[in-house]
Design brief:
single chain; 321 residues; alpha+beta; hypothetical protein PF0899 fold; six-stranded antiparallel beta sheet; 13% helix; 33% strand
Length: 321
């Protein structure tokens, strides 16, 4: 599944006419005002302006705020609805004109840091504002907005195909780090043109030790839940695993039914020895290589193990040497 969307967010003058815009996430309202004796013209079409024989001026310099706003818009446009939750893109590749990329190269890490905070804040806001639907006397719970990765992945690239003009931002997003043709986010541009970059991001190499963020990978967990096949790279010494919730944020969120507890199990790595340990925190149980663990009791986890989660999911765990 792939959706391509375009969005125009630029102001310009033409032959005595002034175009001004008022934009909010998800909806754009455009007013075309004539300074001559001609009647004002107003056109609105769900975020896409249609104006005949109008040319864009030279693009203004990009700001970090503009890029972050476009990221949030892309995230909201690329949502994927499931039975109990709404999955949002969490992997973003941002393509800039080489001149823009060179100008911003020194502060890209700061833009990425701010973008992650803004994306997380927007997801929290969406979840705070969600309201259940009422059918008769029964109120149907609203779906939770979630992402399929433990972190937001935001990467900047100079456009090497000479298709992104100066001042534009082209964003390709994915719903998870393992990109799949039928399970994608969306593509957007800032200046109202069709997305044109054709290069494809490569999935993370299964044998590579460093992650995309430069951290060391201590272990890898492969599994398949309601959001599709997943690969989770363990880069910290403690990993909370479960369905999660508003007051139970998981490092590794599992998209599945209520059989899996909100906090189902805890993985811990001894930094001195590198040994992994596992603790069952669930109602419906955790298994390691077919043996059920005692709830609340920490046990050593073999370097390679199959972890059963409530008898509905299997996690293939493999520690790195």
């Amino acid at each position: 599944m792939q959706r391509i969307n375009t969005y125009s967010a630029t102001a310009f003058r033409r032959a005595g006419q002034e175009l001004s815009w008022v934009a909010q996430l998800g909806t754009t309202l455009w007013f075309l005002h004539s300074e001559t004796s001609e009647n004002p013209v107003r056109h609105w079409a769900e975020g896409i302006i249609v104006a005949s024989d109008v040319r864009h001026p030279a693009a203004v310099q990009l700001s970090g705020q503009t890029i972050i706003t476009e990221l949030i818009r892309n995230m909201e446009m690329g949502q994927f609805e499931m039975a109990y939750s709404v999955l949002l893109p969490c992997v973003f590749d941002i393509y800039l004109h080489p001149d823009d990329h060179a100008r911003l190269s020194g502060i890209i890490p700061l833009i990425v840091e701010d973008a992650r905070r803004a994306l997380g804040a927007r997801v929290s806001e969406l979840n705070r504002n969600r309201g259940g639907l009422t059918f008769g006397r029964t109120k149907k719970p609203a779906k939770e907005y979630r992402i399929a990765s433990a972190v937001w992945i935001v990467e900047f690239h100079p456009d090497t195909e000479s298709t992104v003009p100066t001042g534009d931002v082209e964003i390709h997003s994915e719903l998870n780090e393992t990109a799949q043709p039928e399970f994608r986010g969306t593509k957007t541009t800032l200046l109202g043109r069709e997305p044109s970059v054709t290069s494809r991001r490569l999935p993370a190499a299964t044998q590579a030790l460093p992650t995309r963020t430069g951290q060391m990978t201590f272990a890898e967990i492969r599994y398949e839940d309601d959001s599709g096949p997943q690969v989770y790279q363990v880069t910290q010494n403690q990993v909370r695993v479960g369905r999660g919730g508003d007051d139970a944020l998981m490092d590794m969120a599992l998209y599945t039914g209520d059989e899996v507890s909100r906090e189902h199990l805890l993985l811990r790595r001894d930094a001195a020895t590198g040994q992994f340990l596992i603790t069952d925190c669930s109602t419906n149980g955790t298994w390691v290589n077919g043996r059920r663990l005692k709830k609340g009791v920490e046990e050593e986890l073999p370097p390679r193990a199959e972890i059963g989660v409530a008898e509905v999911l299997n996690l293939a765990f493999e520690a790195r040497k």
